[in-house]
Write a structure and sequence with these properties.
The protein is an alpha+beta fold. About 35% of the residues lie in helices and about 25% in strands. It is built from eight helices and eight strands, in the order H-H-H-H-E-E-H-H-E-E-H-E-E-H-E-E. Strand 1 and strand 2 form a beta hairpin. Helix 2 runs antiparallel to helix 3 and helix 3 runs antiparallel to helix 4. The longest helix is centred in the C-terminal third of the chain and has 16 residues. The protein is elongated. The relative contact order is 0.14.
């Protein structure tokens, strides 16, 4: 099993507030729901707090974002709070609950909580240890060692994002700095990267597809995972 699977299964492994009889543990909830949004919502609903139950419906999407040159990843949590300046006052309890659930997992260093329209309403620290996990760098390292044809391609990857919605498994997007009209091999390159990524992902159930794109969106390659 590649590092991705182990990483995603450890997210949300903190203890329950209530601990009442009949409640599933947060750890079990996360493992039963590799989709991070559903794992977080399940954890909220297995707590005994009525406030936590209400919070679950305000989280609409969760994504993990890794950018070239960054030390670690960022979680973005899209909410329905707002509009305008109201989101900053409303999002606090959800941000606190998410930080508790994340439990300092090294998969991301911080979380951005977005209100209606996608504006960041609040930021929170998730992990500041000395060994962060960075899926972009892990994929690059694997490609160099295991997919020689991709060695020259991996420096062109600029971002790796895994998005989780409420309607199924996650979807991965890998962005590159290739520009279609400047390189007649761009399509060939993004095809090769998508194949390498699928090999690296190795059947992990936390996402079902990957799309590799050029910077200008003129070329893309999609694969099932």
């Amino acid at each position: 099993m590649l590092a991705t699977g182990a990483l995603l299964l450890t997210v949300g492994c903190s203890g329950s507030d209530g601990g009442g009889s009949g409640s599933a543990s947060p750890s079990a909830s996360a493992k039963d729901n590799p989709n991070l949004l559903l794992g977080f919502r399940t954890w909220l609903k297995t707590n005994d707090s009525e406030r936590d139950d209400a919070l679950a419906g305000h989280a609409l999407n969760v994504s993990l974002d890794y950018r070239s040159g960054d030390r670690d990843g960022v979680v973005e949590v899209l909410t329905d709070y707002g509009p305008w300046g109201e989101a900053e006052d409303q999002v606090g309890p959800l941000a606190k609950a998410f930080t508790t659930w994340w439990d300092e997992d090294p998969a991301a260093g911080s979380a951005h909580f977005l209100g209606q329209g996608g504006k960041t309403a609040k930021k929170a620290k998730l992990y500041d240890g000395d060994k962060p996990s960075n899926l972009l760098e892990e994929f690059r390292s694997w490609s160099v060692k295991n997919s020689p044809s991709s060695e020259r391609l991996t420096p062109h990857i600029t971002e790796l994002t895994i998005g989780y919605g409420a309607k199924g498994s996650g979807a991965v997007t890998v962005s590159t700095d290739y520009v279609t009209h400047k390189d007649d091999k761009t399509q060939q390159n993004v095809d090769a990267l998508s194949e390498a990524f699928a090999d690296w992902w190795d059947g992990d159930e936390s996402a079902e597809s990957v799309t590799v794109t050029s910077e200008d969106q003129g070329s893309h390659a999609e694969r099932r995972l």
